[in-house]
């Protein structure tokens, strides 16, 4: 069924069809009996799938990565796709349009996507308004970033603003300094700026009576030396975990012709699979398995997911694979995990 829908969806502009799909899912699940049908087809519940991490209990290890439901418009409905957790955002303190359109491109030959969205979102108040409508029991993560107009020397202020405002409404936080689509953002991954940012967030978190786990999302384009720094920073700041990885700026292994004509943007999907797994494996090895890692990047099958778990990932996230394979992918991964 989804294969037919995908052929139709892929006839249209990716960003426009993304918004259309949101409306279609909402409409479909509002039909009496449809939630029961989706639950039967896509949701797999088994105590053996439950994972306890960061002091939280995940229904299953397969989550939806940030960027799909940026503004928290669909997480209640997406719960019927079988996810164990859902991450909203990236959100910034004030709304921003993001980069000029067209900014989202399918590379069907590669089963990949290039995006240069640029943290387009409706801002903190709009996201909080949606989170107040939360009905699902699934864990919800908040992926936070800085506004484009905020200089890096004041970036901490934006992250703190997001942290303080979202704290009552999300179960964990993800610090996004690894998107390639906001100018100079990745400079915040440098050792000293990153330590300062994470320590400031930890201090704010420690003042709360109900602190939230804080995770760092990293780029796949870091060198081994930079990954060593990440391990050191993790130990020094005592954050709770890492998400490996964001999209890549590397296009060396793409099959699609004339891809450079698309312009700037991060690549996600199958071409990212190997590198993201390498990063997971390296971090796991260098930390002696002490770092909880959420593995994301190029998961298009149950086999891809198992590969990341064996490399050292405790939890998983999908995004581009969800678009290419449909919601059945979540259940297939969970079924494979049960067989381990």
TrEMBL record:
Record GO terms (molecular function): dihydroorotate dehydrogenase (quinone) activity
Domain of life: Bacteria
Binding site for FMN: 66-70, 90, 143, 176, 217, 245, 269, 298, 319-320
PROSITE patterns linked: DHODEHASE_2
A GO cellular-component term linked to this record: plasma membrane
Compartments it resides in: Cell membrane; Membrane
Cofactor note (record): Binds 1 FMN per subunit.
InterPro entries: Aldolase_TIM (IPR013785), DHO_dehydrogenase (IPR050074), Dihydroorotate_DH_1_2 (IPR012135), Dihydroorotate_DH_2 (IPR005719), Dihydroorotate_DH_cat (IPR005720), Dihydroorotate_DH_CS (IPR001295)
Top class in the EC scheme: oxidoreductase
A Gene Ontology BP annotation from the UniProt entry: 'de novo' UMP biosynthetic process
Record's keyword terms, sorted: Cell membrane, Flavoprotein, FMN, Membrane, Oxidoreductase, Pyrimidine biosynthesis
Protein's membrane topology: Peripheral membrane protein
Ranges where the Dihydroorotate dehydrogenase catalytic domain occurs: 49-338
Cofactor(s) this protein requires: FMN
Entry annotated with the keyword Transcription: no
Complex formation: Monomer.
HAMAP family per UniProt: DHO_dh_type2
Protein name per the record: Dihydroorotate dehydrogenase (quinone)
Native source organism of the sequence: Brumimicrobium salinarum
Lineage, opening ranks: Bacteria, Pseudomonadati, Bacteroidota, Flavobacteriia, Flavobacteriales
